[in-house]
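ok so dumb question maybe but i'm new to this and my supervisor (M.) told me to 'just get the structure for Heme chaperone HemW' and walked off. so i did the thing. is this what she meant?? sequence i used:
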Amino acid sequence: MNSPHDQLAEYIRQGVIPPYQYSYPPRSTYRRLDEGAWDVHDVWAKDLAAYQVPELSLYLHVPFCRYKCGFCNLYTVISTDEDLYDAYTDALCTQLRDHAEIIRARRLRTVYIGGGTPALLSTRHFEQIFATLGEIYPNWRSTVEEVALEATPDSIVADPDGFGRLLDLGLTRANIGIQSLVPQEIREAGRGQAGEDVIRRAVEIVHERGLPDLSTDLIMGFAGQTPETWRHSVDELAGLAPTTISTYFLTVRPDAWFSKTGAYQYMWRPELYERYDYAREVFTAHGYVQEGSVRYKKPGRGGYAQKVLTFHGVPLLGLGVGARSYTSVLDYMTGSVKPSMSEVADYIRSAKAHRLQPTTGFALTPEEIVRKRLVLDTFDLDLSELDRFGLDMIGEEVEEILDAAHANGLIHRVGPRRVQLTPKGFKYRDILSWMFYSDHVKTLDREYYEGLHEANARARRNMGTPVRITGIGTARESA
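this is what came out, is it supposed to look like this??
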């Protein structure tokens, strides 16, 4: 077997593009838990005992969308039913109250409302959610440093006063999915998207209303995207001056519609790194600094606090159907990983009956806790923080990988035990992160996706569609 140095050098030479590493272990490793084996409050009590400074991030999932994007594999369902929104909000607030003890025992750092398209909810729904949060954690507006919401340009343009009301309720960051400023790329990707004029108007409204942090994104690798169209999107977005910009490589997981049908020929080649280089050059020239491998921010204003804290090991409590929770004991969901309206209905019933417990997840050993930090947090990591979890168990393997990263120019050695990514390390961070995966996690991940590929192949054969194996990954972050 090649040494870690040779493996890493070869991956870089080939221009390998792994999935963006935003969680570890990935959702693909979750398996059905024995019924009744895990109690939510017991899990969080054990997690609390593991940390001297208890902190918490809160993620609230709203699964509703107007349509399903072809490349999306997130937990979403299609619905614009206001009665369903009412029932779901009631259930979410009930679940919040059921977790009051867990939340109160920690310092609440961030609140993120994701989806789906949570901006489909009405102002009254957000008022209900924030009022419930105030019941159980009265000073949350004082302690929370980031309150974020996913929105669409057309939702902001359609109701600017409603968006202003969200700012009054405490919103500090809005994530607006742009993906591209070339309409044809978006249409071919199966995403209904507002025109450039609507995007510009949405950005104007956000700036006029004084939102502290506007976060946008672009995707590299759409079908039909060229170096010229990519440069157009980058240049135009830099001119709009949002406070935070993310750039993702487009990958389509086997559980996304495009992969099931084999109908979408997106780009997945090493030349995409040249588009990464162009974006980095333009954004840094416009005063952005790189916060992560995919993210740029205006100093002192932009950024994604919840993601940074999660990478640093701060636990995350995920509420709502399809939400994931990350602890030092168990990463888990309280329902199925497959979105459906029946699953949403079951969530509403179970939440109102106070019956939600972990059903799917991954139990973390001390070794996997160490690997989680190494996979996610090499941007700036003091290895001494991992000693109490047993870094020495895999110390030799870790040092070999870090030596390889240093020799290949991916990390700085800062002091005796701190490591930080170099600019080259930011670029190839996902390659380095994959090398810290345990064999157990790699096996579970492979088994999951092999099963999906086989199911997709059977379905396409039944439809008479040529079988095409697609890449694995996601172009969007979510808890």
